[in-house]
Amino acid sequence: MSNNYKAINWNKIDDAIDKATWEKLTEQFWLDTRIPVSNDLKDWHQLDDDHKYLVGHVFGGLTLLDTVQSQDGMASLRRHVRTQHETAVLNNIQFMESVHAKSYSTIFSTLNTPDEIDEIFQWSDSEEFLQNKAKWISDIYNDTAEDPLKQKVANVFLETCLFYSGFYTPLYYLGHNQLPNTAEIIKLILRDESVHGTYIGYKFQLGLKERGENEQQQMKDWLYDFLMKLYENEEKYTHLLYDPVGWTEDVLTFVRYNANKALMNLGQDPLFPDTAEDVEPTVINGISTTTSNHDFFSQVGNGYRLGEVEAMTNEDYEKWANDDPEK
Ligand SMILES: [Fe+2]
Ligand SMILES: [Fe+2]
């Protein structure tokens, strides 16, 4: 006889962080269609061809990565959950990854011509260094024999590091008071990724603690090697996109800063010397996960608001981690 099927009970929570993350993510729910991107057209027409190319292709790259997350990432993580509530949180994340992937198309349809959009998608479906990222990560996701903790590592590296060479561009423009509505979409995505990376990293840390000392060391060795492989590829990708506008070194500083944050989410020591002080100040200001106030009924302002939300901090997680879930 097979085991009985178990109904999910939200009145009996095994891990308080599941519930807190669910609440956080549902509070900050948003949709791309409610951001008035067309208000950016005036700024867009003032950009030269090199910068327009950069914006379009950076978003092409981000589309591919969010596609990986929505199609393969969460499905992979859902195979090895600790609680039923974790499955529910991953379901929420999966849907939002589809919103993220779609939102770049909302930007394209406003700023780019149909021919330009076709070219961007041909590029993202074939560009070597971008495809490397998508393939290396999705290969780990889709290998059912792979260590589930490695799948979480791959997820956090994608969420907290590999997106950021792309996020740099809209954050840069935001810091220079250009393309604010486009940047608002990116900030909403970034706010989600920040919670996703912290949550998956936390689940990784719980799993790692249960392993023996040797296994823990092997996992650490593997994850630092994998991060270096991803970073070396990221250097090539960043040169390809940013050399024409001369921002490459600043972008790579930002990538290394976020690689350290990914390691922090996984409970590991930083790999690179770069800190927030090394990152271009206009970009670091844009990374704060608050969004500007937005009344979406009248489409005044360029933020987006649905309920009161504030950025998740490590202290929040530590507090929950120490809370007794039975209370
Ligand atoms: Fe995403
Ligand atoms: Fe995400």
TrEMBL record:
It comes from the Bacteria. InterPro entries: Ferritin-like_SF, RNR-like, RNR_NrdF-like, RNR_small, RNR_small_fam. One of its GO terms (biological process) is deoxyribonucleotide biosynthetic process. The lineage of its organism: Bacteria, Bacillati, Bacillota, Bacilli, Lactobacillales. This is Ribonucleoside-diphosphate reductase subunit beta. Tetramer of two alpha and two beta subunits. SUPFAM superfamilies: Ferritin-like (SSF47240). Fe cation 1 binds at D66, E97, H100. It catalyses: a 2'-deoxyribonucleoside 5'-diphosphate + [thioredoxin]-disulfide + H2O = a ribonucleoside 5'-diphosphate + [thioredoxin]-dithiol. It comes from Ligilactobacillus aviarius. CDD domains: RNRR2. It is an enzyme of class 1 (oxidoreductase). Its cofactor is Fe cation. Its EC number is 1.17.4.1. Keywords: Deoxyribonucleotide synthesis, Iron, Metal-binding, Oxidoreductase.
